[in-house]
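The data are quoted verbatim for reference:
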Amino acid sequence: MLLVEATVDAQSVVEIKDAGVKGKGAFASKDLIEGTYIGPYVGDLLTNEGVKARYPDPTQASYLFELTEDLCIDAQESTHFSRFFNHAEHGNLEVRANVEARTIDFYALRDISAGEELTFDYGPKFWIFRGQPTGDSRNFSDPIYRERPPELSIRYPPPVGTRLPLMPLTIAELKAALALPTDEARTALLRCLEFFGATRTAAGGLRARIGVGPDAEERVLDSGAQADVLELQRIALACLTQALDASGTAQRDVGEWMDSMEAELQLIRRWRDRVPRLASTRHDAASIAAFLLWKNPNGHGVTQPLSREECNDLVYRLETSEDSLAEVLDALGQHAPCAHVTELVDTLAEWVRLGDGCVVTSDEGVPTLVGHVPPLLDAVWRRVPRLMQARILVYHYNPNST
């Protein structure tokens, strides 16, 4: 057992006092500007085996802070002020972990006024084994909080066979995300931006940089999780293309594609919002193709107009018979060039496939991801300090967790 040493400044910026129903809390003793170093998390450094030995009943462990999958800091017996940082959904402290130095440090996430309580988000992993925290808008009894976050799984793949939702990190995946139903498209784009370091504001908005360079413009979207898909796609495009192509060629080319496809992508999202998934990705693709040939004939070289009734009939056949795909494709080929119909359905099917996310597979015994992080993004990963390892650092030991 090792003690994580910390020197407490006599002129500490923190004072401990009553925090109401939460018991004791830590409060700023003076005004603090964004980025101010507050102090370290102080306690005993334990391995998982040490945690099990110390806490036979895991529910008694309330001050464990995870450093790695096998190391954490336990402040149960600590008298340092960091032990008294309480939870808040939109806390005012930023957590930074240094695995090599085996330290966890706190910084002011924004300007903090004297007398304001110092808080940070303990994360779902802490609360799913406890009662719902007061003042938190998230429902931690929801099954989604018992699933491993997809962004965390990028670095620590879950068991083989696990399906992860789409987090677009390539241009192809970005296009697929834009063709998802509206809410799913928005969520996928938010995952992408969080990969590049986007954070939530205290008011529930989204703070993100438009690009990955040190001079990238920062934008705050007040609507946060309900942000407009078009606005999110522009920011995601800048981040992805700058990370993958410093020359700017990719951003220009894909930007032009997005401008030309904007109306059609809105049609695809509208269709997918309304029509349930069919028997296969190609069935889905054929139904979308029929809708596009009806709604946007000029964009697809339609020679014989497709009526609403004919479109509905083709979709009905796809919904009611798995064997109808070939005849529906033949029917579409009577309204537009067959080669174009084939290419359109192939493209749409690829978007549907990518939109379904990826499955963890095994490559010679090593878990890998289908749709994994491109190698070029590793450099970007190392330039973004607040990422997945810092998102759910408060650790509650659960022998059955993955």
Summary: The chain has 13 helices and 17 strands. The two ends are 25 Å apart (CA to CA).
